[in-house]
Amino acid sequence: MSPGVLHFVQLVVTGLVIGSVYSLVALGFVLIYKATSVINFAQGEFVLVGAYICLDLIVRFQIPFVWAFLLTMVFSVILGLLVERLTLRPLIGEPTITVIMVTIGLATVLKSMVTLFWGTQIKVFPRIFPQEPLNFQGIVVSEVYLWTLGFALLFMAIFAAFFKYSRAGIAMRATAADQQASQSMGISVKRIFAISWCIAAVVSGVGGILIGNINGINITLADFGLKVFPAVILGGLDSIVGAIIGGLTIGILENLMGGYLDMYFGGGVKEVAPFVVLVVILMIKPYGLFGTVEIERV
Predict the structure, then answer these.
(1) What's the predicted TM-score (pTM) here?
(2) Which CATH number fits domain 3-284: 1.10.3470, 1.10.287, 1.10.10, 3.40.50?
């Protein structure tokens, strides 16, 4: 392949890896919105907390990565339960904007607690995945990227199967479609809310661990939630398939724009690109590619 084609494919592959993590975290946004009609602005802080908990278990307590990973998932479930039970459940029936403001306050609290316990310095995960690059016909990919892509796709497949085949998953889909009808069929809407927050915390924790193994972690990892938001809008706020496709698309687009345009603008294009895409999407398709279009008759 020519150097130009190799460069393009290299950017696409790297963007696909980051995009797979975007897709995973975007699932948390979509699940909470489908179940409660609330956008969780603390999603990035769930990413941050999950990454720090796993790192602390590995470094401070010398727990092997596999066990630290599983314990972080358990902690994420507990965190999701506590958040839903203590801060969100008392607000059932309140205006949506009130709940959204509470999630913003929750984001501030979680970020402040991370700063208090772990500081703001960049911390690096011990070498967990092999770092040696692999060469595929001139395309150089680090093994940590392949492991990250594999983990992200695995978790997306697990949750897709959960939503489609498990009783809880079917109940979640029913609740998202019509809460009153679900309650009349004996489904506990409060229980579904709790499950949604738990899954959102888990997928965010996994995303934080995967990104942490690539770039290291510090307090700015919380901004990952905002970077995922354009992916959620692209796919549609209430579409699980859209969240996956949107995450992959945004990951690839931002990497391509950064790779080709940074040299002309002096850098920063990669960080701005997702939000440019967000504005364009809202102008053309306000409900995203796969979102449900709401029609109001007057």
Answers:
(1) 0.90
(2) 1.10.3470
